[in-house]
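Q: Hi! First time doing this. I have a protein sequence and I read that you can turn it into a structure. Is that right? Here it is:
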Amino acid sequence: MALRRALHFVFKVGDRAKTATFYREVLGMKILRHEEFEEGCKATCNGPYDGKWSKTMVGFGPEDDHFVAELTYNYGVGEHQLGNDFLGLTLQSSQAVSNAKRLGWPLTQVEEALYLTQAPGGYPFYIVDKEQPPHDPVTKVSLGVSDLQRSTHYWVTLLGLNVMDKSEEKNTVLLGFSDSQCKLELQDVGGKVDHGTAFGRIAFSCPREQLPDIEALMKKEKQNILTPLVSLDTPGKATVEVVILADPDGHEICFVGDEAFRQLSAVDPKGNELLDKAMEEDKSDEWFAKHNKQKAAA
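A: Yes, that's right. Below is the predicted 3D structure, encoded as structure tokens:
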């Protein structure tokens, strides 16, 4: 499974401007690409919505060798309800800690050289207060599970991740495809996993030829397939093929064909400009304020 790699986590955002400030100015990430869509995604990349939406990829470097965030914004939806499914994204950057302090962004020290902060919408981010490494500073994504043994079996036996570490004291297991990639940490929450309406999705790539095999294995094992193998178009860019799964707790998992995804995910030097232009042209906040209405809360 060495050819499989961790790509990104999908966050639903209600306030693009504040979210852009957090990722760009607090964390110090770059806008890698920005895309606008007139209708909902066939693989529900933007959630269960049919209308106009946008996708912004942000990270510390190119998607070829960095784990990044996919920010999906649905026009007209201003708020998403959090559950206990997403427990945090951890990255290493003393510069991000300095940025947060300088900008007055709330920080809570949880232990020595480790701070907790929140992205707009309440998503938890853990920042290790050490010099940013030359490779990807994003080290792990943490998800809540209701049965650690069952989930470990699913991710390791069916999806091919390796157990990197485990802690009985914290009730966690750390998984990954390789040492050099961002890891997935599963933590037993001691009860049912609630996904709220803000539920995200973790994405991995694999050689395109493995996609039908992944789908066939899940059918054989009677596991949940949310979207069977399908092609997704992005205007003016490469078409990719994906299979969308759900683990035993309902965490959404995307596997995408690596070859086409590397073309799609090439850094767009105009990404920053396209995001700023889209935010400037988005008059939805003004419209709702003028009509004394609030954006929908999902």
